[in-house]
């Protein structure tokens, strides 16, 4: 199963260190996740040690997020979806912890029900499909973000492609997004959360920068919460340098790089 992951792909840069730290000898990753979680001192929002357990440990009728919040145990299946989920826990533990706290609080308040409600919907979208867009503070960064929000794809991704890497960096967060990108398709689109940062953050080494993003975004979730309006879409293979042949015509395929809908 894991052999189908191409770790050279740039969209796995963020979680690759977590995978390497597992030092897997085969495909049985549950024990490796637990060793890594223990060495990192990972906990849930109640301070309970985080452990990855077989899916069968989730009691019937108990919501997944509720169970993690109450026990610190993460039900995990033997598939790519849950494998990437475990890697994100190892990579962005503070964000994952705060997302779980938001979801568990909503379940405690409103129950599970047929509909998640807007707060849980936003948290689920973030958990499954988010990318974190780190943008250097300044006029150029603000202009690029405005163009992305306005679906001005040529301006943001082609004409400003030199900004990516230097002034704009992307970290995938959503584990379902990572799973889909095992078989990359041009139409795969992330829900992107913009994070503005100063020169000091861009000067950090990758591990320290990830830790800053983790703490910053977790605190933002704590203070501001989430709504679906927090996100802007981004076709992932449109990120400069993430796919070959990204010429002007590449970004003119409107079935992928869609114009923004007019609002009344």
UniProtKB/TrEMBL annotation:
InterPro entries: DUF3025 (IPR021390)
Pfam families: DUF3025 (PF11227)
Name of the featured protein: DUF3025 domain-containing protein
């Amino acid at each position: 199963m894991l052999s189908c992951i191409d770790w050279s792909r740039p969209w796995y840069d963020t979680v690759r260190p977590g995978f390497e730290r597992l030092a897997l000898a085969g495909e049985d990753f549950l024990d490796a996740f637990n060793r890594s979680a223990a060495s990192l001192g990972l906990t849930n929002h109640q301070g309970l040690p985080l452990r990855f357990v077989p899916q069968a440990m989730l009691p019937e009728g108990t919501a997944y997020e509720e169970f993690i919040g109450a026990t610190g145990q993460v039900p995990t299946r033997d598939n790519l979806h849950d494998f990437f989920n475990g890697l994100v826990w190892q990579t962005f533990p503070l964000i994952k912890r705060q997302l779980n706290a938001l979801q568990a609080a909503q379940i405690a308040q409103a129950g599970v029900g047929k509909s998640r409600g807007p707060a849980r919907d936003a948290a689920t979208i973030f958990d499954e499909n988010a990318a974190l867009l780190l943008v250097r503070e300044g006029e150029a960064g603000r202009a690029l973000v405005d163009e992305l929000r306005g679906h001005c794809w040529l301006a943001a991704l082609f004409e400003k492609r030199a900004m990516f890497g230097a002034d704009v960096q992307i970290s995938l967060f959503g584990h379902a997004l990572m799973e889909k990108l095992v078989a990359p398709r041009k139409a795969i689109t992330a829900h992107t959360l913009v994070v503005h940062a100063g020169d000091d953050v861009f000067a950090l080494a990758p591990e320290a920068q990830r830790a800053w993003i983790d703490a910053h975004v977790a605190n933002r979730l704590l203070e501001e919460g989430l709504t679906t309006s927090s996100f802007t879409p981004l076709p992932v293979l449109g990120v400069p340098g993430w796919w070959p042949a990204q010429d002007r015509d590449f970004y003119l395929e409107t079935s992928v790089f869609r114009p923004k809908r007019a609002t009344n």
